[in-house]
Amino acid sequence: MKKKIGANIYLIAVFIILYAPIFYLMIYSFNSGGAMHDFKGFTLEWYKEVFHDTRLIVIVLNTLVIALLSSAIATIFGVLGALAIANARSRRTKNMLLTLNNVLIVSPDVIIGASFLILYTLIGIKLGFTSVLISHIAFSIPIVVLMVLPKLQEMSPTLIDAARDLGATRRDVLTRVVLPFISPGILAGFFMALTYSLDDFAVTFFVTGNGFSTLSVEIYSRARQGISLSINALSTLIFLFTIILVIGYYFINRKSVRPNGVGMRQ
C-alpha cells in the first residue's frame, strides 16, 4: 500500500514538473499587462496579433505542408523498411538492418542537422522547402519502422499460409492480410512522424534557408528578440493542436483495433 502511494506521489510530482511551465505560459498568454508577471486582466490581444500576422500564417502553412508530406512519404518507406526487416532470412541481416535503422534515432539532432547541411552543400541542393522536406522524411522513417515492426512480429505466419492455400497472390497477401493487420502500427507511425516533424527544431534550424521557415525556428527567432506574449499565444495554440492530434489518434486507434485473425474475402 505504501509503495502504491509513493508511486502515485512520484507520478504526480513528475506531471507537475512537466506541465506546470506549460500552464504558466498558457495563463500569461491572456495577460493584458504584456509581461510574464503581474497578471492584470484577461485579454485576447495576443491571439489576435498572431492571427493578423500574415508572415506567421504563411510559416504555419509551410510547417503543416512539410509535416503532412514528410509523414505520408516516411510512412510509405517505413512500412517497406519494416517489411524488409521482418522478412530478412538470417538473424544477422535482421539485426544489422535494425541497427542501421536506429542510427538516426540515437544520434544527436545537432549532428544530424549538420550532416544534412554538409550534404546539401556538397550536392548543390538549395536550402529551403526541399531540404527541410528531405530531412524530415529521413528522420521520420526510422520512427515509422519501429511503430510497424511490433505489429508484424505479432502476426501469426499461419495467416499468410492460409491466404496462400486459398490461392492468394503475393499482392493479395500484402493488401488483404498484412496491411490490414498492421494498420494500427501504420497509423501510429504516421502520427508519431507528424508529431516529430511539427516539433523538430535542431535539424530544421540547420537546413532552412533565407525566405523559408517553420514554426519551431520562428518561435526561437522571436524569443531571441525579447519576451512577447504573442509567443505565449502561439505556443499555446501549438500545444492545443498537439493535444487534439493525440486525442484524435487515440480514438482512431480504438476503432482500428481488430481481433487477431484477418479474414480474406473469397
Topology:
Layout: H1 2-28, H2 45-51, H3 54-86, H4 91-106, H5 109-123, H6 129-154, H7 157-165, H8 170-199, H9 202-207, H10 215-224, H11 229-256
Describe this structure in words.
With 266 residues, this protein is mostly helical. The protein has 2 domains: 1-43; 53-256, MetI-like (MetI-like fold, Orthogonal Bundle), CATH 1.10.3720.10. The chain contains 11 helices and no strands. Helix 2 packs across helix 11 and helix 3 runs antiparallel to helix 8. The longest helix has 33 residues, at 54-86. The relative contact order is 0.13.
Summarize the structure.
By secondary structure, the protein is mostly helical. It has helices at residues 2-28, 45-51, 54-86, 91-106, 109-123, 129-154, 157-165, 170-199, 202-207, 215-224, 229-256. Residues 259-266 have low confidence and may be disordered.
What percent of residues adopt helix (DSSP H or I)? over 70%
| Total of helices | 11
Rg over CA atoms, rounded to whole Å, is: 23 Å
Largest sheet: none
What would the average pLDDT be, to the nearest integer?
A: 84
Tally of domains = 2
* N- and C-termini, Cα separation: 55 Å
How many strands in all? Answer: 0
The top-level CATH class of the largest domain is: Mainly Alpha
- Apparent shape: globular
Q: Helices and strands, in N-to-C order?
A: HHHHHHHHHHH
User: What is the CATH architecture term of the largest domain?
Assistant: Orthogonal Bundle
